[in-house]
Amino acid sequence: MQRYLTRQRGLDPELVDHCRRKRLVDVDRRANAIFVTRNADGTPTGAELHGTRPGRPFKGMTHGSRKAQGGFWIARRKSGPALLAESAIDALSALSITELGHVAIVISTAGVATRLPPWIRHLDPETILCGYDADDTGDTAARRLIENHPAIRRMRPVEGTKDWNGQLQAARHRLAG
Question: Does pTM surpass 0.90?
């Protein structure tokens, strides 16, 4: 799982280690990456799963998870904007993107949400940025979310990348190249 997240997905090894120490990231017996979902108080509400086996992509939630009551999130500081992402891997990727250094909290909604889950308000972000994928599904969901919550602003991954992990990997490739 560590190798998958750092080598294949390009996440910072120190960030992954930090998440493991905080018990926010783990691995199950099938080698799926487990991302613990929590409410604003930090109480676990379930987990996102990401398959790590080559040729067997898998994304989902553990049985009994309650998406409306919590998500995978990390706060880098107490004040500033929150960025919503479609997955825990995209949320962690956003933390490593230099241009997103102003973001205080990254939150995975484990897919797209067209209404803001109430628990997010308890994190008390200054503003909320909708960072859903740069594709038709992400754009449509972002538009509906903003219609339901006009204070939310759209923030798309850069042109040529679909999501925050793609943007992170492209930046790392440019630096290595």
Answer: yes
